[in-house]
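STRUCTURE:
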């Protein structure tokens, strides 16, 4: 508890007193107190220090502030300030969320959507900051950690927002127009699942994979597909989650074979066409993308967890959901070795090594392009991979950590280079075909609903618009598009996103 009591101001307002005996606000007229902040600020505001709430009350009418997250030191202090008259008065405002510093990260993750709120800033009640330097430091650190976490996701949405929506709509239209999809044979889950990533160590473990081929149901990532074929190993399944055109180049020249191709519905449409026209079996899955989630309600597209968009995790999640009890990893290095970002035989390995020179290695070229983070010596690797001169990056290491988190969520026990399931029943996938007959009607219904919801937004403030969006599953399908739109304000970005969707539906 950072407060010791209450005093009355000259205007008869309740002023909390800190444990030091100092008042949190003016003893004369606290009702006019304001936060010294940028008058042009728009977005979500985090305020450290609630105290008597006067400084918060005086910015509530600002239409440019869409969300306020007001933070106190601890549960006892929060309970105390919530009993004060002014704080009670403003607590009914839906724009405000009250929390402690320990709950701040969770609140931010649940409530702050960069593409909607845009800006996020931290302001302190000055007296509170002076009296509580340690709490202030912890809140500042929490916000910096959150921004670091969310900025990567937001930059991905800015870059891929349009591409994801375009691909989803084109693929859905293609599925709807083509009814001759080949049948799917469910995997043999009595075998061990082998997840084949494209790290440099893969080429050093291929002999084991080749010699023990019949013991494994081989699930390859798209980047490793070429390497396996080069070593005369035909995988049982290949997983693709990449929306970019480069992903289709993994399959150039691919003919019909027994391989099951597992494609995220946001995958590049050229990949879908290439594989389908060759007569290959395709199993569509979806990520957490809101448009994919909406469509799947009527078409039955199953969900695969890909962590932060990592195909290795998506392949592992397919194995787990298909019912495999042991999942062994090959080439999942999350690092570079011997100057190589990928194993030999992959399309990307050829691409980067063709541009590699002595002063700019393939690993540096790849890192600069994909991650824009410096290489560093890694710590302990997840798996026992035969790598030399290992280097990693912050992004690659985060992928490894995400894989471990995925395993923990699914109650998988790590043993050597494998994860073992102890679940009694783990088969969660339905291998029946997508009901393509429902796609067209589902998309038409969605567009009508979005248009209706947009009409309801006219004349509303940004805060009210955000409330409408987050409470509408139809408008939420546009969410990743908002980040990519360059309109003047939230209302215009919504209209631009809708028109983008309309174009590809027509």
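SEQUENCE:
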């Amino acid at each position: 508890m950072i407060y010791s009591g209450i005093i009355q101001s000259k205007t008869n307002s309740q002023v909390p007193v800190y444990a030091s005996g100092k008042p949190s606000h003016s003893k004369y007229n606290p009702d006019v107190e304001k936060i010294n902040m940028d008058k042009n600020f728009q977005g979500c505001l985090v305020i450290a220090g609630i105290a008597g709430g006067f400084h918060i009350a005086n910015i509530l009418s600002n239409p440019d502030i869409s969300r306020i997250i007001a933070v106190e030191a601890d549960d006892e202090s929060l309970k105390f300030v919530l009993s004060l008259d002014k704080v009670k008065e403003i607590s009914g405002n839906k724009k405000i969320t009250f929390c402690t510093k320990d709950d701040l990260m969770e609140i931010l993750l649940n409530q702050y959507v960069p593409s909607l709120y845009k800006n996020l800033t931290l302001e302190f009640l000055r007296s509170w900051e002076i009296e509580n330097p340690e709490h202030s430091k912890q809140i500042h650190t929490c916000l910096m950690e959150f921004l670091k976490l969310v900025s990567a996701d937001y930059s991905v949405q800015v870059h891929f927002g349009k591409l994801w929506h375009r691909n989803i709509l084109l693929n859905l239209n293609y599925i709807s127009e083509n009814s001759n999809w080949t049948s799917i044979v469910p995997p043999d889950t009595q075998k061990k699942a082998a997840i084949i990533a494209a790290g440099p160590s893969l080429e050093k473990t291929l002999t084991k994979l080749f010699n023990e081929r019949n013991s494994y149901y081989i699930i390859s990532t798209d980047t490793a597909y070429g390497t396996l074929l080069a070593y005369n190993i035909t995988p049982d399944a290949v997983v693709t989650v990449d929306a970019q055109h480069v992903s289709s180049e993994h399959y150039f020249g691919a003919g019909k074979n027994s391989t099951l191709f597992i494609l995220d519905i946001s995958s590049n449409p050229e990949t879908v066409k290439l594989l389908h026209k060759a007569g290959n079996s395709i199993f569509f899955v979806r990520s957490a993308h809101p448009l994919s989630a909406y469509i799947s309600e009527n078409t039955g597209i199953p969900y695969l967890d890909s962590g932060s968009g990592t195909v290795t995790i998506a392949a592992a999640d397919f194995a787990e959901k298909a019912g495999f009890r042991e999942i062994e990893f090959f080439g999942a290095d999350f690092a570079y070795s011997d100057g190589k970002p990928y194993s030999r035989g992959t399309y990307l390995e050829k691409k980067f090594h063709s541009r590699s020179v002595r002063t700019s290695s393939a690993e540096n070229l790849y890192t600069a392009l994909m991650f824009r983070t410096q290489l560093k010596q890694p710590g302990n690797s997840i798996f026992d991979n035969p790598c030399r001169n290992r280097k990693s990056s912050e992004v690659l290491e985060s992928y490894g950590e995400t894989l471990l988190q995925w395993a923990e969520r699914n109650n998988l026990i790590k043993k050597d280079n494998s994860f073992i399931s102890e679940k009694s029943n783990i088969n969660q996938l339905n291998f029946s075909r997508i009901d393509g007959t429902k796609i067209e009607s589902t998309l038409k219904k969605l567009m009508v609903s979005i248009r209706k919801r947009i009409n309801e937004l006219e004349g509303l403030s940004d805060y009210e618009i955000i409330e409408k969006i987050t409470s509408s599953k139809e408008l939420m399908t546009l969410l990743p598009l908002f980040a990519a739109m360059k309109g003047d304000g939230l209302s215009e970005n919504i209209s631009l996103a809708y028109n983008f969707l309309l174009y590809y539906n027509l």
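REMARK: The first strand starts at residue 3 and ends at 8.
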